[in-house]
Amino acid sequence: MKNVNASSEKLLIRTLKGEVAERVPFWFMRQAGRYLPEYMKLRAKAGSFLDLAYNPDFATEVTLQPLRRFNMDAAILFSDILVIPHALGQELAFKAGEGPVLTPVNDIKTLEALSMEGMHDHLSPVYQTITNLSKKMPSGVALIGFAGAPWTVATYMVGGRGSKDQASTRLMAYQDRETFSKLITLLINSTSEYLIKQVDHGAEALQIFDSWSGSLPAGEFITWCVEPVQKIIENIRKVYPAVPIIGFPKGAGAKLKNYIKKTKVTAVSIDTSMSTSWVRSTIQPLCTVQGNLDPLLLASGGIALENAVYHILDHLKDGGHVFNLGHGIIPQTPTENVKLVSDIILNYRR
């Protein structure tokens, strides 16, 4: 059982809950990943991405690797959003050059073949990883658990892989609304239980990734992005009312304000496209914000990178702010660029 008082004293947790401290906490999405040579070495040893993610010793080591280099204020569990459909019974493989490939769930027959029975047994290696990490986290560093939001996970389940416009999933949502609603309900229930279990095992904050929310028009955004996340958060808070929850509806734009009010997230992650001036005036008064450095600029480096880091810090310094990227670190990012940004943030004072 985690020490709740110890968690609440950590800079990241205090900031997520609205405190404006002298120093801005930071972590980076995909901070454990292919830009680190030590990750690539262990990835090769594991044999496949899923073998890496489902091995508690390997996943624990990978989660801790970036902390040894960059002194982040949080570690995020090393896993993948697609472990949920995998645990429900959908076939999943990560193929070189293609990414995740699933057997499509696009009608009532394939949907009814899925089940939550045995889900937690399937996910037990993930829970063990969290237990391991909760015992190994450096002092003051918070552990973040996560899951994909129902809409984004559904786009992979229906389409069988990632896509640029999520067309097959959007068509199913229009043409076979009853079946698609059942799929979303299954994902609400399974994701709620999964995230609660993560907190049971030691996660101190949670992030819900909705990477493809930006593809939906306003009405569909409410139906498939806002309302499912709202239900998940309600379910979590029945068990853990105080755990901070970060929402990340990437590409939501101006719809972000309504997302915050309806879901009641503790904080929101803001993508690279969002103006920090707009975020400061419109979003920060509602909750803590997280973001939003361009991952490509992090890879590019130079004076432009330094200027952008200071711009974000200066613009958002008067409210709750966790420094992060607008999306995940890309594989070709030089480690020295990550170190540069880390050092700037660690030395910056409001």
Tell me the helix content: 40-55%
Strand content: 5-15%
**Alpha-beta content class:** alpha/beta
Q: Give the H and E element order.
A: HHHHHEHEEHHHEHHHEHEHEHEHHEH
* CATH architecture label name: Alpha-Beta Barrel
Characterize the biggest β-sheet.
7 strands, parallel
Side-by-side strand order of the widest sheet: 1-4-5-6-7-8-9
Low-confidence segments, ≥5 residues, pLDDT <50? Answer: none
* Tally of separate helices: 18
| Total beta strand runs | 9
CATH class: Alpha Beta
Q: How many structural domains in the coordinates?
A: 1
Gross morphology? globular
Give the termini distance in whole angstroms.
35 Å
Taking all Cα atoms into account, the compactness measure Rg is 19 Å
User: And the CATH topology?
Assistant: TIM Barrel
What is the arithmetic mean of pLDDT?
Answer: 96
